[in-house]
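User: Show me an example of a complex going from sequences to C-alpha cells.

Assistant: Sure. Here are the input components:
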Amino acid sequence: MSSHEHTSSFNVKDIWRVFFVLLAITVVEFIIALAVPESFMAKDIKNWLYIILTIMKAFYIVAYFMHLKFEKINLIYSILLPTVFILGVIAALMYESNYWLDIR
Amino acid sequence: MASTTAITGKKSIWDGGSEPFGASYGKLMMWFFLLSDAFTFSALLLAYAAIRFSAGSWPVPDDVFAAIPFVHGNHYPLVFVGIMTFILIMSSVTMVLAVEAGHRGAKNEVVKWMIWTIIGGIAFLGCQAWEWSHLHHDGAWWGNNPFLNADGTAGHVNFTNLFFTITGFHGFHVFSGVVINVIVTLMAANGVFDRRGTYETIEKVGLYWHFVDLVWVFVFTFFYLI
C-alpha cells in the first residue's frame, strides 16, 4: 500500500521540525514589524520581506503538511503550474491600480 | 524501433485499473478543489491589494488591530493576531499527527489528535468572533469605517468592506473545516475507517485543513503586516 511508503518519508520528528520552521519565520516577521524602526528599514523593503517570508511559509505548509513534495511529479505539476494564472492577475492589477492612482 | 515496440507492448498507466497520479480519485479531486479555492482567495486578496494601492492613503494596521481581550487602554499591535496565527499553525500540526497516526492504523491516536485539531479550530473561531465584535463595537462594519487613513483623512470604507469579507470568507472555511473534522472524528471513533481498512479520509480532510491554514498565512501578511 502506497500510504505506508509515505510514512517513512515524513515522520513525527519531521512534523515538529516543520512546525519550528513555521514558528521561526513568524517570529522573524514579528521582529521586522515591531522591533525594526522604519528609519533603519524602509516600509517598502519590509513589505517585500513579508511577502518572501510568507511564500516560504506557504512552501513548508504545501510541501510537508500537505505532503505535495512526496507525491508523483505529474500531481505536483498539475497543482503548481495553474498558479501561474495568479501571477497574470497580479501583473494586470498592478498595471490597473497604477492607472487608478494616476487618475485619482 | 525496438524501444517503440517495448512501449506499445506495455500497458499504459492511462489504460485504467491504476492511479496515474498516485492518488485516489477523492484525494485528487480535493487537490483540484483546493486549487480552485486558491484562485478565489487570490482574487479577493489581489483585489484588496489593488484597491489599497490605488487609494493612496490607507488605515494603519498597527493602530486598527492593537487590542487584546481583558486588557484596556493599551496599545499592543499584532499581539492578538499573533496568538491566532499560532493557534492555527498548532492545529495544522495536530492534524498532520492525526494523518500520521492514521497511516499506522492507530485509531485512538487519530481520535486524540483530531480532537486537538477541533479544539484549535474552535479557539481560532472564538478569537475571530472576539476581534469582529471588538471592531464592530468601535463602529467598523461593512459600509462603515471609523479608522482614519495614515495621512489623517477620512478612512476608505473599502478597508472594512474587504476586511470583513475576506476574514469572513476565511472564517467560514474554518467553520466548515471544524464541522467536517467533527464528522470524521466521530467516524474514526466508531471504527468506520478500520472497517474500510484505510484512514485516507483523514488525509483528504487534512488537506482542506492545511489549506485553511495556508490562506490565513496570506491573510495575516496582507491585512496585518503590510
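The lines above are the inputs; the final block is the predicted structure for all two components together. The radius of gyration of chain A is 19 Å.
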